[in-house]
Amino acid sequence: MTGTPDVVIIGAGVVGASAAWRLAERGCRVTVIDRADDFGKGSTGRATGGYRAQFATEINIRLSLMAREMLRSFEEMTGIDSGYRPYGYLLLTRSADELSSLLVAQELQHRLGLTEAVEVSADDALRLNPALASGTFSGGVYCPTDGFIRPLGILEGYVAAARRLGVEFRFDEEPLGCERDSAGRVTSVRTSRGTHSCGAIVNAAGAWAARVAALADIDLPVWPAKRQVAITEPFAGLPVDMPMTIFAGDGFHLRVRDDRVLLVQPRDHDSADPFDTSFDESWLDEVIALARERVPCLRSASIDRDACWAGLYEMSPDKHAILGATPEAPNFYFANGSSGHGVMHSGPLGLLVAEAIVDGAPHSLDATALGPSRFAEGRPNPSPGLL
Ligand SMILES: Cc1cc2nc3c(=O)[nH]c(=O)nc-3n(C[C@H](O)[C@H](O)[C@H](O)COP(=O)(O)OP(=O)(O)OC[C@H]3O[C@@H](n4cnc5c(N)ncnc54)[C@H](O)[C@@H]3O)c2cc1C
CA nearest 301: which of 344, 260, 347, 354? Predict the structure, then answer.
């Protein structure tokens, strides 16, 4: 569609708020509905705050490069600091196979302009992060312009910018169903607090997006994956500018945030409810053991058990975002499925979905690779292990 329709956005996380701002900039009247009682109650408030352009597909690298420009000018645009700090991402490898897949990705990164990403030897890696135990890796890759961002600061920035343009955020309101016309277009959204007629709707419901799509009888292949974060008590043994340090083989990674160390070891957690975000204590011993083996100074750090948390990634089949509408529901737009990269990519995703709605197609970036029909058409993106 083209024009400036009234738009209803479901979900006031970082993606919904980014889209709201960009749509309002283009003259749309925007209402954002969230069933929670305030901002930040979904995954955005649980993210650890990493930013990287070291990805393995062209579309993700381009999204990151575009995001980086937006992060750099974020305060100018919104009045709030995005917290972007280029302290680097150091990915460590233990085998030739692990390294070679990172180097294949690095060739693509270089071709797309990320020339500062480099291969590092074990000695280089130790210089970049002297706290590491030598012998726990043999080499790796490093990009100095990767680093950290502040998820809730970024959300706050989008919200402030959107509100200045008249966007209404409504909480404690749950969508119950959608009216659709004979062409499949959504004409209104019925909620727990009323009915909103609309010319377009954006699904920005994060890990819960498939349930929201189902309200309009639309299938969306997005599901939750639980991720846990262990956090130490305040710990002075690691510097604030330590790069995000990731072991490519098993994904164990750590960073320093607000004088504490965050430890993550991604793995599946058995749970009867896939949306369960209670913290699985049984995982802690494993992550603590890895941390102590690989970063010996952490043997003297204590874990703040009450502050550890779990949250949900919003997974898609190829671990790439799903952006746009389908012919079956031409004004129901997805901004979903970032698979754990939604904060860092929220700037481009919000802009691209706004362009799709107002101008008929995204144009700041070729977003064909994110099209919702790619799965049915048998052209998913490659989804290499770590990147
Ligand atoms: C532990 C962890 C670490 C992460 N680290 C990073 C990182 O370093 N960098 C990064 O870029 N990303 C990271 N992520 C991923 C990131 O948090 C998500 O990709 C991002 O927050 C998705 O934003 P969103 O706005 O789509 O979803 P959300 O922030 O989850 O927002 C969705 C909103 O929709 C609302 N909602 C849901 N269902 C309904 C409904 N039926 N009706 C109305 N409202 C509804 C929710 O209340 C919520 O407010 C991490 C995630 C986790 C869990």
Answer: 260
**pLDDT tens-digit map of 348-360:** 999 999 999 999 9
The answer to whether domain 7-49+151-222+317-374 and domain 89-144+224-315 are alike in fold is no
Residue type, 147: G
pLDDT tens digits for range 32-83 = 999 999 999 999 999 999 999 999 999 999 999 999 999 999 999 999 999 9
State pTM to two decimals.
Answer: 0.97
Core vs surface per residue 72-101: b (16+ CB within 10 A) or e:
eebeeebebbbbbbbbbbbbbbbeeebbeb
Mutate to test the pocket of ligand 1, among 343, 353, 387 (most ligand atoms within 8 A of CB): 343
CA of 130 to the centre of ligand 1 (A): 33
Strand partners, 179: 188
Atom of ligand 1 nearest to the CA of 173: 43
CATH topology of domain 7-49+151-222+317-374: FAD/NAD(P)-binding domain (3.50.50)
Where do the DSSP E strands lie in 237-292?
244-247, 253-257, 260-264
pLDDT confidence band for 1 (50 / 70 / 90): low
pLDDT band at 17 (very low <50, low <70, confident <90, very high): very high
C-alpha 307 – ligand 1 centre gap (Å): 19
What residue segments make up the domains of the chain, in order of their start? 7-49+151-222+317-374, 89-144+224-315
Residue closest via CA to ligand 1's atom 2 equals: 47
Residues with CB under 6 A from ligand 1: 10-16, 33-36, 41-44, 46-50, 174-175, 204-208, 211-212, 227, 229, 311-314, 338, 340-344
Q: What is the CATH number assigned to the segment(s) 89-144+224-315?
A: 3.30.9.10
